[in-house]
């Protein structure tokens, strides 16, 4: 995660981390070696093996953003850290910084937002993703699941996985729900039935990742998260779509993973359900208005088209909408600047999200 200093500050600014620990569910420090991940798979291509100053904790694929934010090591304001977050990991770091600023860690009263020097977002889920609705979240509230959907199958599978609690399997991969005590030894048969019926467990409480990634869930989170004036913020937005005759479609077939292609296609044709209230104030449907009606409301046609239509959410990379990746914009805009050339971000300015992308945005590999 870096030494808390930029390369331009020359030699003598590096630092080395030793005996790193993380905070577990009960707010106790445990060694990093006790963390589990998917076998030997490294999420950041083995970066943690190439430099001892780089830490890549494994947080569980389905845990909520707030649960994930407790899993970082000890440091202080005099030794701040550079954080790099991918997808939902960006919001995890933002939550962590807010928790540091609000002094939410028990036994650590001297924390502050200055413990983090910079945050770099790679395809960050700042404002949620419409994919959650295709996967099975209800678009009217963004919290409940559709009765028949992909994530219902996921829910049942995860509950059974944690309930069986097979040691060698859990050692290979852990979804991160141990704090819900869903093991058969603690839950029993009737407890399993209760979880499967939706009366208990993380999916009932909304304490899992997909409810945080709906537009509604992201807005609720963004209301509490600040962009701090002394922190450097960078973001990289990606997409795997393009426009053909005004229609948004996946950019190519071979360049997108098969598991993402169908979702990229669905997201590129996104239309908010007409029988459901808009997800946020200012969201409109172009099909409901004629140009003469728009002008009669005193609105500029071009401005209305640019911010108030489903098409804004159609560019995507198969997982997230490109509009969601640049900076926090819902329910209110955070300071931001689009960076096309490197010179656009110089001199570096803290307290503003620098969205580094080409005019067509980067292509997510």
From TrEMBL:
Q: Which Gene3D superfamilies match?
A: alpha/beta hydrolase
Q: Which organism is it from?
A: Hibiscus sabdariffa (roselle)
- Pfam families with a match to the protein in the record: Neprosin (PF03080)
- What's the source species' lineage? Eukaryota, Viridiplantae, Streptophyta, Embryophyta, Tracheophyta
* Record domain Neprosin PEP catalytic: where: 1-37
Q: Cross-referenced InterPro entries, in alphabetical order?
A: AB_hydrolase_fold, Neprosin
Q: What is this protein called?
A: Neprosin PEP catalytic domain-containing protein
């Amino acid at each position: 995660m870096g030494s808390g200093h930029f390369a331009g500050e020359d030699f003598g600014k590096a630092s080395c981390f030793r005996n790193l620990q993380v905070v577990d569910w009960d707010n106790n420090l445990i060694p990093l070696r006790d963390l589990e991940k998917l076998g030997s798979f490294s999420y950041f291509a083995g970066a943690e093996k190439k430099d001892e100053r780089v830490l890549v904790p494994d947080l569980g694929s389905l845990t909520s953003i707030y649960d994930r934010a407790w899993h970082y090591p000890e440091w202080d304001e005099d030794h701040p850290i550079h954080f790099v977050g991918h997808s939902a990991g960006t919001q995890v770091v933002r939550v962590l910084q807010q928790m540091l600023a609000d002094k939410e860690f028990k036994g650590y009263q001297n924390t502050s937002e200055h413990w983090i020097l910079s945050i770099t977002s790679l395809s960050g889920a700042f404002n949620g993703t419409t994919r959650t609705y295709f996967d099975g979240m209800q678009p009217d509230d963004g919290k409940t699941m559709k009765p028949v959907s992909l994530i219902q199958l996921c829910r049942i599978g995860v509950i059974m996985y944690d309930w069986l609690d097979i040691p060698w399997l859990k050692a290979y991969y852990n979804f991160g729900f141990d704090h819900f005590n869903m093991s058969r030894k603690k839950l029993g048969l009737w407890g399993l039935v209760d979880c499967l019926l939706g009366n208990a467990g993380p999916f009932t409480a909304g304490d899992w990742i997909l409810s945080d990634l709906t537009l509604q869930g992201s807005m609720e989170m963004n209301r509490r998260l600040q962009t701090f004036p002394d922190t450097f913020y960078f973001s990289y937005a990606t997409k795997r779509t393009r426009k053909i005759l005004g229609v948004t479609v996946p950019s190519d077939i071979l360049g997108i993973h098969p598991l993402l292609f169908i979702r990229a296609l669905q997201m590129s044709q996104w239309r908010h359900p007409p029988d459901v209230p808009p997800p946020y104030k200012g969201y409109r449907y172009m099909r409901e208005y004629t140009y003469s009606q728009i002008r009669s409301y005193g609105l500029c046609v071009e401005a209305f088209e640019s911010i108030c239509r489903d098409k804004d959410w159609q560019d995507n990379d198969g997982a997230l909408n490109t509009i969601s990746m640049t900076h926090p914009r819902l329910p209110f805009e955070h300071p931001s600047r689009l960076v096309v050339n490197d010179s656009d971000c110089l001199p570096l300015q803290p307290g503003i999200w620098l969205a580094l992308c080409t005019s067509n945005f980067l292509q997510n590999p």
